[in-house]
Specification:
Elements lengths: L3 H5 L8 E3 L4 E2 L18 E3 L2 E2 L12 H7 L3 E3 L4 H11 L14 H9 L18 E3 L19 E7 L4 H9 L2 E7 L4 H6 L4 E4 L10 H10 L5 E4 L1 H9 L3 E18 L5 E13 L8 E6 L5 E6 L4 E4 L14 H15 L2
Helix pairs in contact: 7-8
Bound molecules: glutamine.
Family: Belongs to the CarA family.
EC number: 6.3.5.5
Catalytic activity: L-glutamine + H2O = L-glutamate + NH4(+)
Length: about 350
């Protein structure tokens, strides 16, 4: 149920510890299919109780062995409810995990002061180094929403700010040919290959710490249809002239209600972000299309005049509900309309 494997391999957790509120973790082990990237980038995993037995038809190894092989620290027997309540009260905090028993509390406190997520470019450490083509789609036994796809192929350039593989699988399932490019890939190179659309992916850290990526987004806006997801949405917000800010403890988990203001429908969504776009800072013409119903924050934007759409949350789920998968179809339609109008 908590789908810890996708969370462990989501590059957006780079530089952060993940604390699971579900008390029992590890019972289905780890498998070959549920990887969201080639690596675990998170700082460490904090849980209440590690399952003493592992049982699932897809299981390839235990969670403990998986983390140990990747040199990722995991800690269990922790009062995760108490830490959750503290985080809700005080907001996100800096933590230190150490195996060195000789360290005093003062030394650990000092260590915690040497780290801050604000102002750090964490994207460089997780993005691919060279462009590559992506062809895998969602395996047929897991696919859904497959009706009504018209077999058109659109070429999408996907900026890898820490991209989750399921974004690529869903785009491929919707019939896209995909070229994945590094976060520093120049806009001019993207425009040169004349794709039908550009995807700006999810990614870790502070969106104000990566001005080069905002510049890239700016150079592409208005020239091609674009779709921004999470970090991609925040960078789009900045490129459009808006501001982003750090939230108290952000949105995490697979149960966030979001209202699509165009259809009136509520989607239950997967979310993982610490920053958000301030809608009041956006210029005229930019529409807030989705609102997080827990706190009223901006969960989606569109600028129809420039074929721009973006979501603060995760339509690719993985893990999480599939309510928002249709966003990929909307991106296909944006590319289709733009193609027809040229
Ligand atoms: N999942 C993401 O893309 C995270 C977005 C952003 N870096 C944040 O933490 O707010």
């Amino acid at each position: 149920m908590p789908r810890y494997q996708e969370i462990l391999t989501d590059p957006s957790y780079a530089g952060q510890f993940v604390l699971m509120t579900n008390p029992h973790i590890g019972n289905t082990g780890v498998n070959f299919d549920d990887e969201e990237s080639m690596q675990c980038f998170l700082g460490g995993l904090v849980i209440r109780s590690l399952s003493i037995s592992t049982s699932n038809w897809r299981c390839a190894e235990t969670l403990g062995d998986y983390l140990a092989e990747r040199n990722i620290m995991g800690i269990y027997d922790v009062d995760t409810r108490a830490i959750t309540r503290r985080l809700r009260q005080d907001g996100s905090l800096i933590g230190v995990l150490s195996t060195e028993e000789s360290k005093t509390d003062e030394e650990l406190l000092e260590l915690s002061c040497s780290w801050d997520i604000i102002g750090k470019d964490l994207m460089l450490g997780v993005s691919c180094k060279t462009p590559y083509e992506w062809t895998d789609n969602t395996k047929s036994q897991w696919d859904f929403n497959a009706n009504g796809r018209d077999g058109n192929t659109f070429h999408v350039v996907a900026y890898d700010f820490g991209i989750k593989h399921n974004i690529l699988r869903r785009l491929a399932s919707y019939g896209c040919k995909i070229t994945v490019v590094p976060s520093t890939w120049p806009a001019s190179e993207t425009l040169k290959i004349k794709p039908d659309g550009v995807l700006f992916s999810n990614g870790p850290g502070d969106p104000s710490a990566v001005p080069y990526a905002v510049e890239t987004v700016k150079e592409i806006l208005g020239k091609l249809p674009v779709f921004g997801i999470c970090m991609g949405h925040q960078l789009l917000g900045q490129a459009l002239g808006g501001k982003t800010f750090k939230m108290k403890f952000g949105h995490h988990g697979g149960n966030h209600p979001v209202r699509n203001l165009r259809s009136g429908h509520v989607e239950i969504s997967a979310q993982n972000h610490n920053y958000a776009v301030d809608p009041a800072s956006l210029p005229e013409g930019v529409e807030v299309t989705h609102v997080n119903l827990n706190d009223g924050s901006c969960a989606g934007l569109a600028y129809p005049a420039q074929n721009i759409m973006s979501l603060q949350y995760h339509p690719e789920a993985s893990p999480g509900p599939h309510d928002s998968d249709n966003a990929f179809q909307e991106f296909i339609e944006l590319m289709k309309r733009a193609k027809e109008n040229t």
